[in-house]
């Protein structure tokens, strides 16, 4: 009987392997395209191995001083990678500007923490409380808050009532407020 179970197990493993192989070969193309789009959006340039080898050789030749001016001009005019790099530099500059703007907004938010009063009522679950805190931007991650409360044994001591919070409080400070 054990040999029969082992054979069925082996057939099952073989079947799963074949199914995974078929999925990867035929259905994974869309995911690859999504990855390519995401990389381009994030400012990366995608090149084929041939283009990479060509660029690598040109860099080596430039370092040795063996590339003449004509070859440099031809490579500059016909090189799509350099155009992509310029586009990437522009998008990187835009990303830096956006980052600076978001950093300025964060500084503004940090300078003026808003006070929020939240009411915890009878029968509210920890998840309900986390939803209210998240809506009022007291916490950033609902799951992290719930996990923190459970792992540190705070969930049993949550009190009912109106509580005043400041935006930007850490999880321990929030837990201390609602467990008094």
Can you characterise this structure?
By secondary structure, this protein is mainly alpha-helical. Helices cover 69% and strands 7% of the residues. The protein has 8 helices and 2 strands, in the order αααααβααβα. The chain has helices at 2-26, 29-41, 49-64, 69-78, 80-111, 126-135, 142-151, 171-179, and strands at 115-120, 161-166. A two-stranded antiparallel sheet has the order 1-2. The protein is flat. It starts with a helix and ends with a helix. The model has no long low-confidence stretch (mean pLDDT 80).
Set down the secondary structure blueprint:
Blueprint: H1 2-26, H2 29-41, H3 49-64, H4 69-78, H5 80-111, E1 115-120, H6 126-135, H7 142-151, E2 161-166, H8 171-179
Antiparallel strand pairs: 1-2
Helix pairs in contact: 6-7
- What class do helices, strands and sheet pairing give? mainly alpha
Shape: flat
For the biggest sheet, the summary is:
2 strands, antiparallel
Could you spell the SSE succession in H and E letters? HHHHHEHHEH
Could you tell me how far the N terminus lies from the C terminus, measured between alpha carbons in angstroms? 62 Å
Q: Specify the number of helices.
A: 8
Low-confidence stretches: none
Mean of all residue-level pLDDT scores:
80
Strand order of the largest sheet: 1-2
Strand content of the residues, in percent?
5-15%
Gyration radius from CA atoms, angstroms = 29 Å
